Amino acid sequence: QVQLVESGGGLVQPGGSLRLSCAASGDTLDLYAIGWFRQAPGKEREGVSCISSSDIRTYYADSVKGRFTIFRDNAKNTVYLQMNSLKPEDTAVYYCAAIKARGLRVEVGQYDYWGQGTQVTVSS
Question: Do the Cβ atoms of 60 and 84 come closer than 8 Å?
């Protein structure tokens, strides 16, 4: 069973950047499809980006396309979400999730393992 821990959140001004990390323990993360999700107050959790176990396929929500990049460092057993040109509407708790499967998984219900979340606040 894999355990996930997110880090890297914080307060940033509009237009700024943050890099979120999702560090795994208990298993080799390159066997897993990984997703990043976010949840703002009063809203449902939504998919932001995901990457297949083979790294061949990635997905980005339209709202973050061109600004966010998902990638992994297998040597560190970590998946990252690089977030650039941040906007106030990106403010949310960000979660990483994992499923031991091939292919992309875009939906919340498709993931078996979740981290505790990290807060991202974009404000001047």
Answer: no
